[in-house]
Amino acid sequence: MMRDRRRQPQDRGIVEIGRHASHLGGKGAGCEPVNPPPAGEVAVRRTDGGVLAGNEPPSLEYPSTSYAGPPPPPGEDFHPCRFRLPRLSGVTMRTDQSWRWAVPTVIAVAIALWLGWVGYIASDDGLYYFGAVKWVDNPPYAGVDHWTTRFPVVLSFAAAIAIFGKGLAAFHAMSLGWFAALLVTVGLTAKRIGGATAGWIAVMLTGTMPVLATFASIVNCDMAELVFVLGGIALLPVGRDDMRKGFAAGISFGLAFLSRETAILPLVGLLPIFLCGKPVGRRALIAAGFGFLAVQGAEALFQWIVTGDPLHRYGLAINHDDKMDRAANAEGNFLLHPAIDPLLVLLINDDFALLFWLLIPATIARPWRHLRGRAQSRLLILGAMAVAAFFVVGALVHELVLNPRYFVLAAVTAAIVVALWLVRLRPMMRAAVLVALVGANFAALSLANRHPHWSAEILVETAQAHSAQAVFTDKTTYDRALLPLRFAGVRNVQVGAPTAGSLYVCGPCDDAPGDAITPIAPPPTAIGTLFGVIGLDGKLPGGVRRRLMAPGDAAEVRTIR
Asked: Where is the composition biased (Basic and acidic residues) (predicted)?
């Protein structure tokens, strides 16, 4: 007589599925290692009592890494360490295939780097280089300005110079090294929250994000700051009051603050968590505070020993900039009213493309509902800190420029939430959304001017091509080309009134000496190059054509008679 299975007591024990673990054994369950599992079988372990233990974490195609359901029907083969998937009707489980995302992710990030590559821009990167060289040539160096006192950035740059020498190779190693560290940190953070596939998607979205892909080729402090902030969040003991981990998290937050002072802004998001006492215990957060202060205390002690002023760095930082005005905020941003301008920076800005627009349906879908408790808590902490930083930057509109770089924590958080949403979509829909997101990032990168200081580049090329002839230029152009000229070993460039028989490089060249010649336009943008290849550049409207085909000021090489 057949038994009614619906009336049988159901064992709701949770079973986690993962790739083959070479030493999957039971504690008191009499299980034997599955090495390798027979064809059609998958190594499993229970999590409802710690009966089984393995040496690698479980993983599935989707964020949820557990299955709570009944055991196989009576009479079917079932082993406490493995079971046959074909015989478990009504349940579809797969081994981890997330590694297949590695190739498209690497390709997408490589394309983004190629499209957005700028390199040395003679701005903050030159100041970081100055501080790093001081540490290489004559350590210790206390710093003389806002940039050379950002020690995690300067010291890592000094390490790159010590390895690759004083040249552009050290610049590239520095910028790409921190960019790679950021992608690894984002990937591990997303994987810890939503699984390996979510991790790969988050890396793809972060690595192709225009604001980050462009600065991956420029020495900056953003990457280091974000790496340490995410590292601190990862170290916070969720669900426990572990003071040692809290202290370690505080050290990471302290290093983020040393990398750039804006790292203090997301820490405001920890205040409501401290008041609630969860998901991180109050003692752990107090320990984090002591870890943060330990880093600042060590830096103050260093400054006291070297300069006699323990607050040397803070004095430089406070006097760094004057009050910001609305004109400064308007550079590259679409603004309407101070109350909504920070939101407009996220939604209408080529630095983020479609990311924050796709965050809207992702938030409506609430993909965090399918996460386990600790994963939800980690996403909550990340979201709280990102939201806090967003609102504080908006409130400090007269102290901070509405620079998209100040919103990168919010952007990375958005990328992780969108990744959690995408892994739950059907494959075709997921692919379509990813193509739209990454394609929009590529399009935004393709519009960028990759030669912001074109006249300085022409100066270096001209000086190298006419090494036996004196080349003159204006002071601004000379300062921007100073390091590339030094790296190239060129010594025939001077600033001042040109002499007869010399060359003069300028751009723009209003009232410049010498005979005017045909200007040398900067290379077209990537999209402009595409239009030129297919022969449609001549059909573009005048303003659009200039923006795509000649995105910056032209340069001239004039002969002085």
From this structure: 1-19
262: nearest Cα among 252, 251, 253 = 253
Tokens of 280: 């991180």
The DSSP string of 274-293 is HHHT-SB-HHHHHHHHHHHH
What distance in Å separates the CA atoms of residue 250 and residue 231, rounded to the nearest whole number? 10
Would you call 51 exposed, middle or buried from its count of C-beta atoms within 10 A (0-12, 13-18, 19+)?
A: middle
Bridge-based pairing state of the strands 556-559 and 503-506: antiparallel
3-state secondary structure 430-470: HHHHHHHHHHHHHHHHHCCCCCCCHHHHHHHHHHHHCCCCC
CA distance 176 to 428: 33
Quickly count: other Cβ atoms within 10 Å of residue 475's Cβ: 9
**Residue 439: Cβ-neighbour burial (10 angstroms; 0-12, 13-18, 19+):** middle
What parts of the chain have a pLDDT lower than 70? 1-97, 320-333
What is the pLDDT at residue 546? 79
Read off the pLDDT of residues 509-546 as tens digits, 9 standing for 90 and up. 887 887 778 788 888 888 888 888 887 777 778 777 77
- Residue 514 has a pLDDT of 79
Q: How far is CA 122 from CA 456, 482, 503, in A?
A: 10, 8, 23
Amino acid in position 4 = D
pLDDT (0 to 100) of residue 511: 79
Nearest to 495 by CA among 543, 547, 456, 548: 456
Domain ranges for the chain, please list them: 98-448, 453-560
Let me know: does 386 contact 269? Beta carbons within 8 Å: yes
- The pLDDT of residue 84: 39
For residue 28, the model assigns a pLDDT of 39
Query: pTM of the predicted model, to two decimals?
Result: 0.82
* Nearest by Cα to 139 from 308, 302, 314: 302
pLDDT at site 512: 81
What pLDDT is attached to residue 240?
82
In angstroms, the CA 306 to CA 379 distance is 42
Residue-by-residue DSSP string for 501-516: T-EEEESS-TT-SS--
Structure token digits, residue 500: 């007869």
Q: Of 322, 324, 258, 261, nearest to 294 (Cα)? A: 258
139 contacts 161 by C-beta, under 8 angstroms: no
Structure confidence at residue 39 (pLDDT) = 43
DSSP 148: T
Q: Tell me, what's the pLDDT at 402?
A: 83
Tell me the Ramachandran region of residue 79: left when phi exceeds 0, alpha when psi lies from -120 to 50, beta otherwise.
beta
Rg over alpha carbons for the chain, rounded to the nearest Å, is 28
CB 102 within 8 A of CB 96: no
